[in-house]
Specification:
This protein has helices spanning 12-27, 41-46, 74-85; strands at 3-7, 31-36, 50-53. By secondary structure, the chain is an alpha/beta fold. It has one domain (3-89): Glycogen Phosphorylase B (Rossmann fold), CATH 3.40.50.2000.
């Protein structure tokens, strides 16, 4: 079988469904690693799934996360957060 990396934005609405997918994949024989913020490590590991935390700004706790005040429009705010916390934290190829 394959080794599959499952990634989830660190909030319950994303982690829960993706963890269900990861558990199913493991049950059918795949080697699965799950990555999200450290806040969810116990939940992932108690499901029997290997866990690797996000690093840097992406490794935040959704319960104490403050969005940027500089963006009034919700869509602009979400785009800014995705760029700042995820896209900008990923290494880019030269």
């Amino acid at each position: 079988m394959s080794h599959i990396l499952v990634c989830a934005v660190p909030n319950p609405g994303h982690v829960g469904p993706m963890l269900s997918v990861a558990v199913h994949l493991k049950k059918i024989g795949h080697d699965v690693t799950f990555t999200t913020s450290e806040h969810f490590s116990n939940r992932v590991e108690s499901a029997g799934i290997s866990f690797v935390p996000f690093t840097g700004k992406a490794n935040y706790d959704y319960r104490s996360f403050n969005s940027s005040k500089e963006h009034d429009d919700v869509a602009d705010q979400k785009l800014h957060l995705l760029e700042t916390y995820f896209a900008d934290t990923n290494p880019r190829s030269a």
